[in-house]
Design a protein that fits this description.
The protein is of the alpha+beta class. 40% of the residues lie in helices and 29% in strands. It is globular and about 60 Å long. Pfam families: HTH_18.
């Protein structure tokens, strides 16, 4: 298995990799590497994790200008593609048209020994992609759907394609799993077990969303969708802030009505329900993995009074933080 990425203008190879046999063989090993992007293209990184049947790659890159690169791959793969920020477009003779992704979109792609060109556009690019060995992927593909059967047949005939011609929006549940994968700090076999479970969960969410053909298209304008996602990003990165709906709306250049309606439509919950849930998830993680006291955790996630934090945690998990921290566990 080999991948080559090069720039035709400067005539240089940027990345050339032979992926290990762990992608196909069960030797129990997990392998990782990080590639750093440097000027003149931009600054950032791409982190790869590889084990049997699974290759995970995610990265965050700041670009100076549009970047056009060429690629060659001599293997087959089913790719779970998540475009978190930025725009990309792939042109290959394997596909009739360009495959373009914008921020907040995902799809599943079957690629048979592809070569072509990639264009990246956007000051900040953030993606996560999971490549699965095709025979391994097919074990998870349900058989009671015309959409899935068509994709299975394309894999068997080695016809590169998208599982669905239209990309789907990344859901809140997907964001949580993506975040878990990116920030996983386990080691060795425990990391592999954890990531295998998260990849299966992520694939489940994708297939369920694709199977639900009754979902109606968004009534939001694209510019308003982008603002709603910007509010979501702000919340995730500023858990200790205390903002009103008006503050959040004005921060991204919209109004309170559009924010409330749009957030509910895109994510199926209210702004403050989401904010509370993600605070409690972060608190739970810090209680399990960190050395901070309950008072310190309370401050990190924006509670001035630790008793208020304890009450909110109990409403969410039916147990107070001190009981959870010292091994009594969660009951839901």
């Amino acid at each position: 298995m080999a991948l080559r990425v090069y720039d035709d203008k400067i005539g240089g190879t940027l990345v050339e990799k032979k992926y290990p046999n762990a992608y196909y063989q069960n030797d129990g090993e997990i392998r990782e590497c990080i590639t750093h992007l440097k000027p003149p293209y931009g600054n950032g990184f791409y982190h790869e994790i590889c084990f049997e049947n699974v290759h995970i790659g995610f990265g965050n890159v700041s670009l100076q200008n549009k970047v056009l690169l060429y690629f060659e791959a001599d293997f087959d793969s089913v790719e779970m593609h998540f475009s978190l920020k930025g725009k990309s477009a792939a042109l290959s003779e394997n596909f009739n048209n360009k495959v373009c992704f914008e921020s907040y979109q995902h799809n599943i792609i079957y690629a048979h020994q592809m070569s072509g060109q990639m264009e990246f556009d956007g000051h900040e690019m953030q993606i996560l992609e999971v490549n699965l060995a095709p025979d391994f992927f097919k074990k998870f593909l349900p058989e009671d759907s015309e959409l899935f059967n068509t994709f299975r047949n394309a894999i068997e005939k080695q016809h590169s394609c998208l599982i669905n011609p239209d990309h789907c929006r990344i859901s809140l549940e997907m964001y949580q799993v993506l975040n878990d994968i990116i920030h996983c700090d386990r080691k060795g076999i425990f990391k592999r077990i954890y990531l295998e479970a998260k990849v299966a969960e992520l694939l489940l969410l994708q297939l369920e969303q694709l199977f639900n053909t009754t979902s109606s298209p968004s009534s939001l304008l694209k510019k308003d969708e982008d603002k709603i996602y910007a509010v979501r990003d702000f919340i995730v990165n500023n858990l200790n802030e205390n903002c009103s709906l008006i503050d959040l709306a004005h921060q991204v250049g919209t109004n309170e009505f559009t924010l409330k309606k749009g957030f509910k439509e895109l994510f199926g919950t209210t702004v403050f329900s989401f904010w509370n849930d993600i605070k409690m998830e972060q608190a739970k993680k810090m209680l399990i993995e960190g050395d901070l006291s309950i008072n310190e955790i309370s401050e990190v996630i924006g509670y001035k009074n630790s008793r208020h934090f304890s009450a909110a945690f109990k409403r969410k998990y039916n147990v107070i933080p001190s009981q959870f921290k010292y091994g009594n566990g969660i009951s839901r």
